[in-house]
Amino acid sequence: MLTVFGPCVTFQFLHYWDDYSHFVSNPCVYSLSWYNISHLFQQTVNDTYIPLTTLSFNLEYHLFGLSPMTAHLINILLHLAVVLAIFDLALKLGFSPLESFIASAIFAVNPLHVESVAWVTERKDVLGILFYVLCLKQYWLYLQKNAGKNYGLSLLFGFLSVLTKSMAVSIPWVLLLLDWYHQRPWSKKVLLDKIPFAILIFPIASITFFALSPHPDIAHNSILIGLWSFSWYLEKFILPFNLLAAYSPAVPVVLSNISYLQSLVIFVIFISSLVLCRKNRLYVFACLFWIGTIFIFWRIDFADQNIVADRFMYLPSLGFCLLLGRYLSRFHAVAVILIIVLGYLTFYQCYEWKDDLTLWTTVLDHDPKNVLAKKSQDAVIYGRRSKNFDYKRLTAAIDHDPTAAQNYFERGEDLLQEGDDFLAFSDFNRAVELDPSNYLAYDMRGQLYASKLDYNDALSDFNRSIVLNIDNPLAYVQIGAIYQSMHEFKRALILLDKAVMVDPSAGRVYFQRGLLYYRLGEYKNAIDDFTRSITLHNDLKAGYYQRGKCFASLRRFDRAEEDFNNALKQDPYDVKVLNELGITYLNKRNDEKALAVFNKVISMHPYFDDAYNNRGIIDLHDQRYDLAIKDFTTAINLELYPYHALITRGDIYFAMGQRGKALDDYNAAMFFSQGDPIAQTKRDRLKFILSHATS
After folding, report:
1. CB atoms within 10 A of CB 501
2. Angstrom distances, CA of residue 459 to CA of 443, 452, 501
3. Radius of gyration in angstroms for the set of CA atoms belonging to the chain, rounded to a whole number
């Protein structure tokens, strides 16, 4: 196993995928003071309550320093400890040594577990599930011996597990499952035994669950999404190929989509097998164990980026591994081949997690439509994460004087600049508690509330800031931005006008009001405000870019071209600005310059679908239909909902006389748009033409 996961020790921290939030820039890692450790147990990281995981990072830092090699090695060793604990649990459950070895070996080298081991942030998986398995083992011993010591140890390990990972919320259910597997007679004591677990585990786990998914978006297609997420995990366990750090949703969500038909078939097969094999106690145990531990990750909406994930199968796969261990022990050669194949897949799967760029490039190579991967790859290539913050010093200042609000405010500001919003929120909370007159702390916390779309709390903080300092333009701007988000444009404009009156020299205020005017279609007013913003040297790139869009909307393309070029002087690699410049050349009928720009965008950003669409338009102008089809096909492969590109490609096929292909594209556009009227009109017209041509 150490060989299989060996490549991980050479990997880096993933700056743009939580390793910084959880470890590198987590202030609670840098101090062993009693105050800091107690604070560690009072905070969440990315809305997840995992104090023991953070404590493990703290101890690691003080013993070994900030070393990615050490962090990865510890994860591997913890995974090894989980594997040994599973081997021991299997023996206690009555498995033979060979059966136990095969079960634990399959768990050890399963490619689905690479994410949990190779990603430093997932320390919570390997550490939390170690405690989880130890909890199950002690409870099984309690069932066999009726010893209070074993029950107490089971309760302790269950408590440690939920402090490490909220997935431990399933422990009471799994303990009931162990009662059934042990054939324990039903009595009140069976339920009473679970009450202490529920009291210790449920309140702690709820901190995470209420923060991450308080309001599931139940819609008409929720059942289909639920079937898809249910079946996705089963399919990946059976066929662990093309495993990625992030997955795109299966769209559109309709039963005619092959993904949902396939999910329905898998679901029916699974339920049927459970009914047919209901007398096989181990098979039923494995299936119910999977259901009981994975159910918290079943999705009925696509509201966030973690639609499905490999790491969510780290614990739930345990039951299936035990099942395979029991039955593959009869076929030694098959078991050996399976373990070797899984080990081979796992070894090469590890390399996906080498660094940020490798991680997201791999996702896009397999799933070019993945929106999260596109944003993350952009952040890696074009972003700049600051490395100047001394969190040890900032945390030491708080240790020295835990009652000084300014210390929390300064650390919160640095965390906010670093992009660690959740930890910054905690510091601004403390700053406000210690100094309720700090209007800037209310401003900062209000921004974080607004970023989470918690507009009521955000407005409360901004209004409080204004009460403390009526001449605070930032608060007026932020309230105006919230009203814009709520489509209350008149109220937003009043607030932004007030901000201009309070501070006529604040370029940011003019910029925000310019955005509102642009949104309202008042382009001349927007141009005036962006011009003032530029004159006051406020974010020149954004100012030129937005003013250029206003000029383009007024069809003043020469001025738009000038502004986009000025924006590019600030940042020559901004593909959004380049794309707008290319569109401007298109509007000026300068296809040669437009083509050069779109080629440049594509060379810089091969997954930028707009550039392919726009280049395809140039090909159409020149009647290069084959090239146009190639570009629109690429755009279709890059967009989640590519019905516009499908309609255009259908038009090209129609112009080329390939009416069958045109009809296919119009039908596909209808499929993705679920009834786009333009696609429907073109499809119906073509059907009419085809029907009369054959009559």
Report:
1. 12
2. 10, 13, 20
3. 29
With CA atoms as reference, report the closest residue to 676 among 655, 653, 632, 645.
645
Q: How far is CA 39 from CA 44, 84, 414, in A?
A: 10, 33, 19
Exposed (0-12), middle (13-18) or buried (19+): which is 689, by Cβ within 10 Å?
A: middle
Hey, which residues does 48 pair with through a beta bridge?
45
The type of residue at 467 is V
Q: Is residue 618 within 8 Å of 598, Cβ to Cβ?
A: yes
Query: Other CB atoms closer than 10 Å to residue 621's CB: what's the count?
Result: 14
Show Cβ contacts of residue 152 under 8 Å, excluding neighbours closer than 6 positions.
none
- Kindly report the pTM of this predicted structure: 0.86
Work out the angle between the directed axes of helices 455-468 and 473-485 (0-180°, nearest 10): 160
Render 80-139 in DSSP notation, one character per residue: HHHHHHHHHHHHHTT--HHHHHHHHHHHHT-GGGHHHHHSGGGHHHHHHHHHHHHHHHHH
Mean pLDDT by 10 residues, the chain (695 residues): 90 89 87 86 84 95 92 97 97 96 97 96 96 98 92 97 93 96 92 94 83 58 90 95 92 88 95 94 97 89 81 96 96 96 96 94 92 87 64 82 88 82 85 92 91 88 92 89 90 92 89 94 96 91 96 96 95 92 95 95 91 93 92 92 92 91 92 86 88 68
Q: Please give the structure tokens belonging to residue 515.
A: 């955005």
How far, in Å, CA of 583 to CA of 171, rounded?
A: 57
Cross-strand bridge partners of residue 45: 48
What does residue 33 show for φ and ψ, rounded to 5 degrees? -65, 155
CA distances for 304 relative to 212, 249, 641, 670, angstroms: 9, 10, 17, 26
129, 321, 493 from 489: Cα distances, Å: 50, 57, 6
Q: Return phi, psi of residue 48, to 5°.
A: -115, 130
Tell me which residue has tokens 């383009």. Answer: 552
Degrees (nearest 5) of the Cα angle 175, 179, 180? 115
Of 163, 5, 136, nearest to 79 by C-alpha is: 5
SS3 label, residue 638 = helix
Of 443, 439, 409, 440, which is closest to residue 426 (Cα–Cα)? 409
Distance (Å, whole) CA 148 – CA 486: 58
Q: Which amino acid is at 507?
A: G
Closest by CA to 453, choosing from 642, 204, 112, 215, is: 215
User: What does the alpha-carbon distance between residue 367 and residue 229 come to, in Å, rounded to a whole number?
Assistant: 18
Can you give the residue ranges of every domain in the chain?
6-363
Neighbours of 470 (CB within 10 A): 12
Longest dimension (CA), the chain: 90
Transcribe 230-289 into DSSP letters: HHHHHHHHHS--S--S-----SS-STTSHHHHHHHHHHHHHHHHHHHTTT-HHHHHHHHH
